[in-house]
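Extended Data, panel c. Modelled sequence:
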Amino acid sequence: MKLVEKQKAEELRKKGGSIKEISKELKVSKSSVSLWVRNVPLSSKAKKIIQNKYTNGQLRAQSVRRAQTAEKLFEAQKTGKQVLENFSRTLSVYQVCCALLYSCEGTKSLNDRECKFTNSDPRLIAAFLKLFRSSFLIEEKKFRVCVHLHDYHDKDIQLQFWSKTTNIPLSQFIKPYRKHHTGKQQRKGYQGCVQICYHDVIIARKLQAIAREFLDEYGPIV
């Protein structure tokens, strides 16, 4: 054992030196320093110094990580914008996008005679409807909307919100469904869940067929 270094490490520790600082000054490993000083009695002053160093180090590390994360998110955002700038806005691309969204959040039954798309994200609902309206010749009067609400929601406010989001008149909304709510927690900003129904078996089958063809080509099970 390096007795001289050990004694010096103990002295530095009593003065409030951190494991990293002592390791760097004595040019020994942090594991050795940790072993040497683990039983060193510390005064309240030394404990406070060490704790402050530990806390400040944590804050600096957190700040660095936040900055790194922000930079990576910014780069990802730039990539997303570049992809959308080169996005081919053709009928077939719209139909594929619409069908894939539908395969995730829409009705799966081949026997269903209508399109049903359900979600609580207003942007996803609006995106699906934009793709849906751009992909097929539709009749607006065939839309029906059912909003699922908790007891803390104001029915009239939420219906107006979803009518504006979907661009479907309130006359085509059916009676809202009230979900059971314990009252223990309210999701801030949660607008409820909405189900969009479009009564057309042909379009429903086309959506499912397009999604199946895409998945068969790009996602075969090996």
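The radius of gyration is 30 Å. This feature is highlighted in the accompanying rendering.
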